[in-house]
């Protein structure tokens, strides 16, 4: 059972906050809720939100985590923090005092990161998080209970929206242009550039912009495009398209900064705990727990581990441990980067060798190491960058909403070396067709051959094109 | 900066099972997926002949959530303990996903391949959900099942604790509270302040307690017998017997779901027929030629002896590879017609492992002469055919059309 009381935690929290201020971290007000395993499993399934709309996929997530937990495949996280103001975090009731103190320190690291990193600052509104999620949940529930809509229709619509939720622009700081703004931009672009020698040169024939084309520019925000361009949608369908897109946008910063964020929180819990002057017993447990958290995993990148190492490297490289210069650089990086730029800038050959980084591939029945950092560090780094954050998600854009003159939706996959998985593409196109209410085409490249996938009333079809 | 600590609330934890509804929906979807894959599942030898309460592990394609993802499985990047070498094997393909928290959320194809545990009974229930027995008339009973079920019939003031009707009891109390002209608003007011004082409560009294009255329901059940008739001649090899067994298994399980009391009769035949034990029926092979009529005649004898059609619902099924003495064919058709008269359903399954029906003789053609609506014949070539064939014999549409 537990060996702590809330008062005790509050006292530790005071001391931790002192350190937080001393180190110059800048946090939202913090709230901790003590919960049991079941509640924690629930929070995990619903992305940590105290209120979230229902959908069977969250039930699936719950069962999956619970099964893994019950069978000891994985433990539950010590903590769960959500990006909100005030920052909300959950503590597991049955954890030891040492774990709670460690967790509290760790949470302040996340809290600071949420508040300062630009991905969160531009992509989300932390003050509204909890209430927006709750309002959306209420709306979806209302649609489900509305007899003129039916719960099944809502569920099917959500299924399709979920399939395309991350088929959207991955950079929340770039605003979405309205149709009118796109038209203006197209017309401006078509203006011939100012000619300094109008008498000498022949007047160029400016290319005519195709202003009738919808979209004017290829559009990456699939759900929003459908919301704005499909005429016969019901209000609730339109609303759910917006809701699912909003949630995806909310989670993109977290996907984009996993390594930085976990590394940052681990760096700071480590500093804070060491500065707390812990009694020996707590200190020993802390060392064990800390090493469990930041240990390398053989077949994937443990963001706690790599992030922890990299933040130390940065501190060391730009002034040395605990120097004002080092700190300043760290604070600057935590504000301005995301995982891909962070790795590109700071993951060098030496660090990769130090953590024994390697790349592997499947060969028959086994996973086999193909390159190690001593030789192929550039390849390994490139591979890691391809698999980090939203770089691991294909970019697909709508090019035409009236393909073949029959209101068919024509999309293009921007191929950059990796093929789409075809079964997934087939099913996802089916969902897209459901949302669009008409035929959909996807131009992509499979094994080096340009291919047109099509989902229509007669089913799915893939053919080579020239 | 202020920090808030919210303590653990036991009552909150008990009350809030917010994922319950979503888990339920997920399970319903799994069940549907199970149904769609059931033909593959029962083609697995391991399920056939299991006890109902045994748990089997059934692999099913989980409810997958699709997204646009990259397909070329280019492996990944990892970190080692310091002496990783190229060519080193670091794991077995398919031995589990990466640990949660390290995967790149929402971006990898992920294997949604579930292995679900399910009891054979439940599996059978799913298989037969939408099947109806043809001609399931309730015949006069021979055995009366009693004490088997309980039924609620009204209410009473005394009874065992488990029969307490909480809702009615609570209502009775409220009724009394209103009648006694207690100031309920004030009462509620008081109740909000803690701690609770005894005088703030409006207690239950013995007269509020209402119990459900439960009586044993005497239900009259009709009985059924499944007659399994099989060719045990030399030409029936292991595979053919296995297919036959699968079919009989389904039939027996299905009849079991519809009747409380089901008996099984096994008749093996070559040129002569005899009633045998289940063990002998499936495992003892005999040599020699085949006379199907002998099996049918034996069945008719047994029916006359022990299972009067007035009292029993009779389901007879015959499995054979269709190899019969020509001279016996007329007698066979005659006996089959007779069987149709006494049985609810009489079926013939011809078992011909793939392709062999091109060169082996068949009874399917000849059985067209049996013109009865409770007669069905099917051709079974592979394991995968067993369940669809079975459904075609028992499907509701067919029964209605017939």
Would you mind describing this structure in some detail?
The complex is a heterodimer of chains A (466) and B (402). Helix content of chain A is 52%, strand content 14%. Chain A is of the alpha+beta class and 466 residues long. In chain A, strand 9 and strand 10 form a beta hairpin. Chain A is globular and about 80 Å long. Chain B starts with a strand and ends with a helix. Chain B has helices at residues 10-15, 20-36, 38-42, 120-128, 166-179, 184-192, 238-258, 278-283, 292-306, 329-342, 383-394, 396-401; strands at 3-6, 55-61, 76-79, 89-92, 113-119, 144-156, 211-220, 223-231, 261-269, 273-276, 312-320, 345-351, 375-380. In chain B, strands 10-9-8-11-12-13 form a 6-stranded mixed sheet, with helices on both faces. Chain B has a two-stranded antiparallel ribbon with strand order 2-5. Chain B is flat. Chains A and B meet through helix 1, strand 1, helix 2, helix 3 and helix 7 of A and strand 1, helix 2, strand 3 and strand 4 of B.
What order do the helices and strands come in, and which of them pair?
The complex is a heterodimer of chains A (466) and B (402).
Chain A: H1 6-22, E1 30-35, H2 37-45, H3 56-70, E2 79-82, E3 87-92, H4 97-116, H5 118-123, H6 129-145, H7 151-163, H8 179-190, H9 222-229, H10 235-256, H11 258-275, H12 280-293, H13 303-317, H14 324-336, H15 339-346, H16 349-354, E4 357-363, E5 366-372, H17 373-386, E6 396-403, E7 408-413, H18 422-436, E8 440-446, E9 449-456, E10 459-464
Parallel strand pairs in A: 1-3, 7-8
Antiparallel strand pairs in A: 2-3, 4-5, 6-7, 8-9, 9-10
Chain B: E1 3-6, H1 10-15, H2 20-36, H3 38-42, E2 55-61, E3 76-79, E4 89-92, E5 113-119, H4 120-128, E6 144-156, H5 166-179, H6 184-192, E7 211-220, E8 223-231, H7 238-258, E9 261-269, E10 273-276, H8 278-283, H9 292-306, E11 312-320, H10 329-342, E12 345-351, E13 375-380, H11 383-394, H12 396-401
Parallel strand pairs in B: 8-9, 8-11, 11-12, 12-13
Antiparallel strand pairs in B: 2-5, 6-7, 9-10
Helix pairs in contact in B: 7-11, 9-10
């Amino acid at each position: 059972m537990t060996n702590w009381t809330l008062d005790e935690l509050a006292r530790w929290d005071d001391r931790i906050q002192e350190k937080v201020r001393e180190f110059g971290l800048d946090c939202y007000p913090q709230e901790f809720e003590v919960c049991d395993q079941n509640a924690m499993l629930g929070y995990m399934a619903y992305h940590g939100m105290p209120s979230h709309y229902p959908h069977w996929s969250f039930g699936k997530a719950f069962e999956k985590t619970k099964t893994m937990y019950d069978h000891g495949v994985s433990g539950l996280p010590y903590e769960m923090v959500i990006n909100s103001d005030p920052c909300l975090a959950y503590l597991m009731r049955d954890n030891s005092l040492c774990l709670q103190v460690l967790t509290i320190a760790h949470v302040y690291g996340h809290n600071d990161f949420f508040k300062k990193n630009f991905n969160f600052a531009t992509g989300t509104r932390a003050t509204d998080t909890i209430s927006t999620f709750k309002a959306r949940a209420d709306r979806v529930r209302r649609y489900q209970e509305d007899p003129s809509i039916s719960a099944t229709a809502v569920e099917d619509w959500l299924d399709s929206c979920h399939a395309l939720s991350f088929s959207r622009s991955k950079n929340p700081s770039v605003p979405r242009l309205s149709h009118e703004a796109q038209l203006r931009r197209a017309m401006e672009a078509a203006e011939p550039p100012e000619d300094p020698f109008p008498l000498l040169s022949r007047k160029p024939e400016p290319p005519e912009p195709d202003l009738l084309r919808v979209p004017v520019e290829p559009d990456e925000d699939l759900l929003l495009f459908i919301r704005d361009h499909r005429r016969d949608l019901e209000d609730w369908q339109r609303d759910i398209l917006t809701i699912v897109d909003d949630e995806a946008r909310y989670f993109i910063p977290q996907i984009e900064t996993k390594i930085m964020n976990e590394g940052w929180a681990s760096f700071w819990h480590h500093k804070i705990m060491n500065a707390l002057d812990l009694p020996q017993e707590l200190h020993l447990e802390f060392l064990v727990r800390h090493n469990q958290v930041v240990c390398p995993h053989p077949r994937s990148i443990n963001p706690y581990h790599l992030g922890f190492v990299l933040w130390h490297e940065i501190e060391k490289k730009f002034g040395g441990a605990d120097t004002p210069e080092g700190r300043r650089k760290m604070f600057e990086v935590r504000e301005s980067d995301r995982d891909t730029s962070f790795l590109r800038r700071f993951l060098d050959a030496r660090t990769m060798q130090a953590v024994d980084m390697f790349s592997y591939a499947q060969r028959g029945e086994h996973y086999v190491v193909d390159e190690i950092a001593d030789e192929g560090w550039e390849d390994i780094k490139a591979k890691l960058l391809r698999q980090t954050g939203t770089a691991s998600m294909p970019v697909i854009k709508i090019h035409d909403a009236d393909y073949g003159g029959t209101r068919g939706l024509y999309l293009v996959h921007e191929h950059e070396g990796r093929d789409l998985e075809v079964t997934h593409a087939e099913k996802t196109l089916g969902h897209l067709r459901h949302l669009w209410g008409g035929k959909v085409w996807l131009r992509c490249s499979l094994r080096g051959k340009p291919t047109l996938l099509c989902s229509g009333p007669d089913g799915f079809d893939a053919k080579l094109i020239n | 900066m202020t920090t808030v600590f919210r303590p653990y609330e036991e009552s909150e934890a008990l009350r809030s099972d917010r994922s319950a509804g979503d888990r339920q929906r997920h399970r319903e979807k799994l069940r549907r997926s199970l149904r769609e894959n059931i033909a593959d599942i029962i083609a697995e030898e391991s399920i056939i002949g299991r006890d109902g309460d045994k748990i089997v592990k059934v692999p099913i394609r989980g409810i997958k959530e699709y997204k646009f993802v990259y397909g070329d499985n280019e492996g990944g990047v990892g970190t080692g303990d310091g002496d990783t070498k190229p060519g080193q094997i670091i794991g077995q393909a398919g031995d589990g996903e990466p640990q949660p928290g390290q995967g790149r959320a929402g971006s990898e194809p992920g294997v949604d391949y579930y292995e679900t545990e399910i009891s054979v009974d439940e599996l059978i229930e799913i298989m037969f959900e939408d099947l109806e027995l043809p001609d399931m008339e309730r015949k006069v009973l021979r055995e009366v099942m009693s004490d088997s079920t309980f039924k609620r019939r009204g209410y009473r003031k005394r009874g065992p604790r488990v029969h307490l009707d909480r809702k009615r009891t609570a209502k009775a109390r409220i009724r009394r509270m209103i009648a006694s002209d207690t100031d309920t608003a004030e009462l509620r007011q008081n109740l909000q302040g803690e701690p609770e004082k005894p005088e703030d409560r409006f207690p239950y009294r013995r007269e509020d307690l209402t119990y459900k009255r439960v009586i044993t329901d005497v239900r009259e059940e009709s009985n059924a017998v499944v007659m399994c008739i099989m060719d045990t001649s030399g030409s029936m090899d292991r595979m053919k017997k296995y297919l036959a067994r699968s079919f009989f298994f389904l039939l027996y399980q299905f009849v079991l779901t519809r009747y409380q009391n089901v008996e099984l009769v096994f008749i093996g035949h070559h040129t002569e027929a005899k009633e045998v034990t289940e063990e002998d029926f499936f495992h003892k092979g005999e040599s020699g030629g085949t006379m199907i009529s002998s099996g049918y005649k034996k069945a008719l004898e047994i029916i006359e002896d022990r299972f009067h059609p007035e009292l029993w619902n009779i389901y007879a099924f015959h499995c054979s590879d269709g190899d019969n003495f020509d001279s016996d064919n007329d007698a066979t058709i005659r006996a089959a017609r007779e069987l149709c008269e006494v049985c609810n359903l009489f079926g013939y399954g011809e078992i011909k492992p793939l392709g062999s029906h091109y060169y082996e003789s068949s009874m399917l053609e000849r059985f067209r002469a049996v013109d009865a609506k409770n007669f069905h014949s099917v051709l079974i070539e592979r394991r995968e055919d067993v369940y669809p064939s079975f459904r075609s014999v028992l499907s509701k549409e067919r029964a209605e059309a017939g």
